[in-house]
Design the sequence.
């Protein structure tokens, strides 16, 4: 992604810097023309683009800027997603979408935090970034409309699978309170055949509850099956050289795993190197080294949660189905002894594997020793 920067200069430049603090009912709009200029704050109703245009015009007049001068804006990525980004682009306003977790904060135990203060702070950070200061914050790579729409399928499947697991665990818990277990094979009115600790039938109220839960469970299973069919059809109709077709050709990589990897940005984020992939995935060490104290705090949990979950699943499948590959051999040599070592090492393998798969779909470099499925 091309980053546009405003070159350092004086406050007399014609650029207006605007920061949006988004709320459900109203937006705080902070504006300034550069360093040393007190920011000005306006409040507009959420989504009131006419009000925003008036505020920007007033801001230009207040700071003595040209009526048609450039405007650079920013806002924190969150509940509103990226439609605001697209609306700003359509109006010719340069934009930056910020990762909220990367914004520096005061470490006092109690600090004042309001939308007004956040907007004022954000606009001054924007000036620092545009004047060339690095590592002020991290910016979010905005997906295309097609990429954002496509990931709805894999995200919905993940949510349905979580609901399915939660419901099964609830049913197992209900039965445990009566000294009974959930049958592994459940057909028909199976709850009528379950017996409690004394060999008696379950109470009618519990049977009715299980019956209603079973209806919900079957509905979830049907929806998951429908999404699975949709994903398989997408793979079948994709071009042979497409990323999804390349991924599913690898033994141990299924349709669902490939879909999640691609929907979460393995290709559309346009990574330039492996460090950028690691930044999205997380799983990075967090050392603590200060004065005479030095210790390892474990791996960071920051990162894309969906990508982390699917990468761990892929890593276990890779060890099973690609045991002769270089990555699997590395894992066995370093972490193959002991259950705890294997669980620790699988995280390292997951990170290496995602990087290898990125190189495979973007550059055509097949992971060393990997086996492709027979057509």
Sequence:
């Amino acid at each position: 992604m091309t980053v546009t920067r405003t070159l350092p200069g004086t406050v007399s430049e014609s650029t207006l810097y605007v920061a949006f603090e988004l709320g459900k009912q109203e937006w705080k709009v902070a504006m300034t023309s550069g360093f040393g200029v007190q920011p000005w704050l306006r409040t507009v109703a959420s989504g009131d683009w006419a009000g925003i245009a008036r505020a920007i015009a007033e801001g230009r007049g207040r700071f003595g800027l040209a009526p048609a001068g450039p405007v650079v804006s920013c806002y924190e990525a969150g509940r509103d997603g990226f439609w605001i980004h697209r609306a700003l682009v359509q109006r010719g306003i340069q934009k930056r979408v910020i990762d909220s977790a990367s914004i520096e904060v005061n470490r006092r135990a109690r600090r004042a935090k309001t939308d007004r203060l956040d907007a004022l702070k954000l606009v001054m950070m924007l000036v620092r970034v545009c004047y060339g200061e690095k590592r002020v914050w991290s910016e979010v790579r905005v997906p295309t409309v097609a990429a954002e729409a496509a990931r709805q399928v894999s995200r919905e499947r993940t949510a349905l699978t979580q609901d399915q697991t939660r419901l099964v665990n609830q049913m197992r818990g209900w039965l445990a309170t009566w000294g009974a277990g959930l049958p592994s094979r459940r057909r028909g009115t199976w709850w009528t055949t379950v017996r409690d600790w004394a060999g008696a039938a379950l109470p009618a109220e519990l049977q009715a509850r299980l019956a209603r839960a079973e209806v919900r469970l079957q509905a979830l299973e049907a929806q998951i099956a429908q999404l699975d069919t949709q994903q398989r059809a997408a793979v079948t109709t994709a071009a042979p050289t497409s990323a999804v077709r390349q991924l599913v050709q690898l033994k141990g990589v299924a349709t669902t795993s490939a879909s999640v990897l691609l929907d979460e940005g393995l290709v559309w984020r346009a990574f330039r190197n492996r460090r950028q992939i690691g930044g999205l995935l997380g799983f990075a060490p967090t050392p603590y080294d200060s004065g005479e104290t030095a210790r390892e705090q474990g791996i960071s949990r920051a990162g894309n949660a969906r990508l982390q979950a699917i990468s761990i699943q892929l890593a276990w499948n890779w060890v099973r189905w690609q045991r002769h590959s270089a990555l699997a051999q590395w894992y066995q040599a370093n972490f193959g002894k002991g259950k705890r070592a294997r669980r620790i090492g699988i995280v390292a393998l997951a990170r290496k594997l995602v990087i290898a798969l990125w190189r495979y779909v973007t550059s055509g470099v097949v992971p060393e020793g990997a086996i492709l499925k027979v057509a």
